[in-house]
Amino acid sequence: MLWNQENFPQSFNYLSDTTRQKAIDVASELLRQGMDEHRAIRTALEHALIWARSRPPLRETGLMLPLHVIPLGGSWAIQSEDAAQPKLLFATREEALFHAQQIARINDQEVILHDLGGKIQERTAHL
After folding, report:
1. What is this structure's pTM?
2. Domain spans of the chain?
């Protein structure tokens, strides 16, 4: 299967758009060369993360906005500062914060943790 920005492996979901596109390009090429899908996904993900870490920090270019961990109903959500809707939902605040930190490390982003009332409780840079 060949992928694009609308249809890609679940494991690429947490990547930034540019890193995801790199992973898609690599995985698609590996599949064209005959590699099995599972191995192609794993290899492409590793390659894309190495590629992303070798680039200048996105934060310095102003391309990556902070991730907010916010309460939403009885759940907790991760929402990019420029997004109209949360990207991911989790059952607990701890789980949402953990995943936000993982994403932020990959993308050189800041995580902003909100309390139950929506006020900013903590800011953490992951550069």
Report:
1. 0.53
2. 10-55, 61-125
Query: How far out from the chain centre does Cα 44 lie?
Result: 15
Examine the pLDDT at 26 and tell me if it is beyond 70: yes
| pLDDT of 38 over the 50 cut | yes
Please write the tens of the pLDDT for every residue from 48-61.
Answer: 888 877 766 554 44
CA atoms within 13 A on the CB side of 92: 3
Mean pLDDT of 35-51: 90
Strand partners, 71: 76
Query: Cβ contacts of residue 67 below 8 Å, gap of 6+?
Result: 78, 79, 80, 81, 100, 103, 104, 109, 110, 111, 112
52: left (phi over 0), alpha (psi -120 to 50) or beta: alpha
70-74: long-range pairs with CB below 8 Å, 24+: 70/114, 70/118, 71/114, 71/115, 71/116, 71/118
Residue 50 dihedral angles phi and psi, to the nearest 5°: -65, -45
C-alpha Rg value of the chain to the nearest Å: 16
